[in-house]
Amino acid sequence: MNSFFSKNIFLKSFIIAGFLYLFSFFAYYNVVFNQSLCLNNAFFVILGILILIISLKDLRWGLLIAIFELLAASQGYLFDWKFTSSPDDFRISLRLLIFAVILLVSFYHLWKKRADLKNLLLAQRWGVLLFALNAVFLGLGVYLAWRGQNSSLPGIFADLNNYLFWLYVLPLAVTIWDRTLLQIFYSVALAILSWQIFLTGFFFYVFTHLWISWMIPLYKWVRDSRLGEITRINMDTTVHRVFLQSHLYLMIAFFGSLLFAYFFPEKYRFSFKKGYRAYTIFLISSAAALMISLSRSFWVGLFGVLIVLLWVLWRDKQWQWRKIGRSLAQLSLSLFLGIVLIASFIWIELPFGLGSAGDLRFLSDRAGSFFGSGDAAITSRWKQLPVLLEAIHEKPLVGWGFAKSLTYQTDDPRLLNDFADADGYYTTNAFEWGYLDVALKLGILGASIYVLWALYLLFKAWPIYKKALVETKAFYLLAILAGVFVLFVHIFTPYLNHPLGIAVFLPLLLISWRKIG
Questions:
Q1: Treating both helix axes as pointing N-terminal to C-terminal, what angle do 7-34 and 212-224 enclose, rounded to 10 degrees?
Q2: Among 28, 356, 372, 423, which is least packed, fewest CB within 10 Å?
Q3: pTM score > 0.85 for this model?
């Protein structure tokens, strides 16, 4: 297990990631406060050239860059090419540039290895059929959107482009991942996840304690780079929610750590003794960051994964009460000490701080409001439901096509202040009910095929997990459970139709194609 982690790679990656976040902030600051695009666009061009050179040299390294950008940048605008200084105007994200570069480079490799590709496609007939059916429904969604004039072509593309992330199956089809690449992946991923934890705590402390002059540039950068969301819990407290969309991967790493503790208790133990300290600190700090995110969808997903995991352990004859008790104890201790850490963020003040007017009740209030009582975001989500169901009922089979907009009455103050009309009615083509969003645009048939494709990837990886050696079994199981997690989260928060969620299923392709060495 230790062979999958390199301290040297971790430290270098942590430093590089820190500089990238810093460069992104300074570039954005220069755009907003100095009205200059030069620094921002220069960074974008330099990064684009580096990515092209690296991808041409080794396509797998280009894919690694794509993965790390997902981990670090949430919705992909940490760096972008801007045409104007307004964040609402059209801009080209670094994620889209990486996608275009890797796809173009992969065509060259696909041509060189066309014989191997043909054999792979013949061996994966059902997968190819499901992939092709999905492509047909996506094409139909574009046609219906254009015919129904749902939006302009850029608006239709903006809704479609998330699904295009599945085209990463093309470069994955011609790459094999050896232990060296896996070591780099796990080491760099852990470094970026550590930055996620640090940034979550840093933003939480700043917005709880410090001056408004600190808050404005940070808030604008986080919002306009789409790194995440920072929202005040209520006007009676200075405590803020800090949610990064890429917290999805932090949650996967969190329950992955508990999974490894079950399979390898001698190496992963909740203890502050030497050799276990880093693991223990990661569990506590990641639990704190995930609670600060206040994402109820993630905790619902974690609960669903734990149920599936217990069933897998029982079915696979790996059920051991002692190990289950130890893992649940680690989970409980992590949550408890995570709450203690959050309390220290609220109550410990630096000399130049302004104090805070908050306590830990925001955690219990958030949990208690899951079914809508007293929470504007939840009540708004429930108000979406009848509007979505009525629209789906009108065109149930093939849907309305991409960029279909609906209007509903919202209670969410973020929408009321900026987007809703005087009566609170808000029009959008993005909905929080993930499966219903897909059914609205692709119809029940298209949504069924799409979900069937995701389930196919899970079931294809299952026999590989069953036959795996003891030392790799936990990694394969984690990949499967990560897919299950996204399927649960997608009920309330759309991830399965977004690059952040789609990327979770791509390793399952590598596993089922036996391209992880």
A1: 100
A2: 423
A3: yes
